[in-house]
Design a protein that fits this description.
By secondary structure, the chain is an alpha+beta fold. It has 13 helices and 23 strands. The chain folds into three domains: about 110 residues, Vaccinia Virus protein VP39 (Rossmann fold); about 130 residues, FAD/NAD(P)-binding domain, CATH 3.50.50; about 140 residues, D-Amino Acid Oxidase, subunit A, domain 2 (D-Amino Acid Oxidase, Chain A, domain 2, 2-Layer Sandwich), CATH 3.30.9.10. The radius of gyration is 26 Å and the shape is globular. It binds flavin-adenine dinucleotide (FAD). Keywords: Cytoplasm, FAD, Flavoprotein, Methyltransferase, Multifunctional enzyme, Oxidoreductase, S-adenosyl-L-methionine, Transferase, tRNA processing.
Length: about 425
Amino acid sequence: FPEARISLDLWFGDAAQCFPLISSKQPIHAWFLDGFAPSCNPELWQDQIFSQIIRLSAPGTTFASFSVAGVLKRALQSYGVHITRPKGFGHKREMLKAVWQTVQDRSPIAEAISPQISQVSIVGAGIAGLNCAWRLAQRGIKVVIYDESAPLSGGSGNPLAMLNPKLSPISQVAIHLMTIGWQYALRFYSQFTAFRPIQIQQSIEQKNLESSKQLLADYPPQILSLHDQSDTPYLVLHKAGALQPQQFAEVILAHPLIEFKQAKIEKIKQLSDQVYGLYDQQQLLDRATHIIVCNALALNQLLPDTPRLKPIRGQVSWVNMPQPFVTQQYYTGYSYGGYAMPLDQNQLIFGASFLPQQTETDTRIEDHQHNLDLMTQILPNLADQLPPIAKWHGRAALRAQTADYFPLVGQVDETKPELYCLAGLGSKGFLFAPICS
Ligand SMILES: Cc1cc2nc3c(=O)[nH]c(=O)nc-3n(C[C@H](O)[C@H](O)[C@H](O)COP(=O)(O)OP(=O)(O)OC[C@H]3O[C@@H](n4cnc5c(N)ncnc54)[C@H](O)[C@@H]3O)c2cc1C
């Protein structure tokens, strides 16, 4: 229900283990307790479960269940929850309806609904900051997003980004961020017109042919298929995508609860128990109760105790093609160590160079040449159609890479629960950002 601003969090696991992990900052307004009869499923009706349910609720919270078993009624009543037993559905004689009233019974639901977090400041308007901003705004929270220059002026500002995971065996999906991130990102971005579904031909090195065949056995053919008849075998990932960052950013920044401000945040300082100050070089710009730092490589300057991020320079190239793409070509991308895909009906975008520890972002002929060489090895026919390098366009930017290739996500420091970061997204920021935010 995108217009209704509802988001659904699904927790997989045992309630006894999951409930203690859920934050109580936003009270739950309504519970449907559907855990089978207490006689069949006693674990779910233990006191430690009820105490968690109450911890996550607030005066005004409602409870409903098909069960009217004594253990359920007594447990809720012991916390001051008022119980009624109207006529049940279908063959059920009664059901349970309950509400947690205050002593004064002054209809506190409105108080409970008003979010305790009312405004969040985000530093950095790349794909990480934009995803965070959208998530919060969709939950009714006001966001101010800062960028030192313009939105998408860092790594996220290429004309088109590919959503291209290296899939894991199905048995490892639950712990493989890239596979989970891919499924999540496709569903998330497909609500935006900036998204285009594509299939990707992923070339396979001979040494990886066997493991690719095993992967093939794991996934249904509508998702993954193999072409191994030629010298250059490849997997076809049928469910992939391309995102136009500029078009995406326009929609995000038009959200009525999101405000963009241009400023370089030089310092974040705790002003009191729950208030932080955001400073530029001279002055205090803003106060915030919650901050998310999404400024990629500059994270270590702003928050010096964060794990080191390594810069990796990269350049993409794009060119006009002699013929417009036909439909099937338009919806096909290629991945071969580098990547290529139609930027629009007439242009091809491809890349990307990968130069660790280089921090310059000038566009270079040698990076174009590198992109050409990569393509020529695997897709010589496509490379042959490219115009001379002098006619190419390019953009260079920096990736921010962590030592273990996993992004940095979440609370920066246990003693500062209001300060978060999402950074170090490496080469797959567009894939990781939706799930991480
Ligand atoms: C050539 C190239 C091609 C790539 N292709 C793909 C691809 O196809 N698919 C994919 O998934 N990933 C791709 N990546 C990786 C992807 O671009 C990154 O992972 C992603 O952009 C990281 O997003 P981010 O928001 O963390 O950082 P950024 O996009 O770099 O955003 C950080 C922002 O913070 C701002 N900022 C910094 N310091 C401050 C400050 N002090 N105050 C205020 N603002 C500040 C910057 O101006 C910047 O806008 C590519 C990267 C490169 C370099």
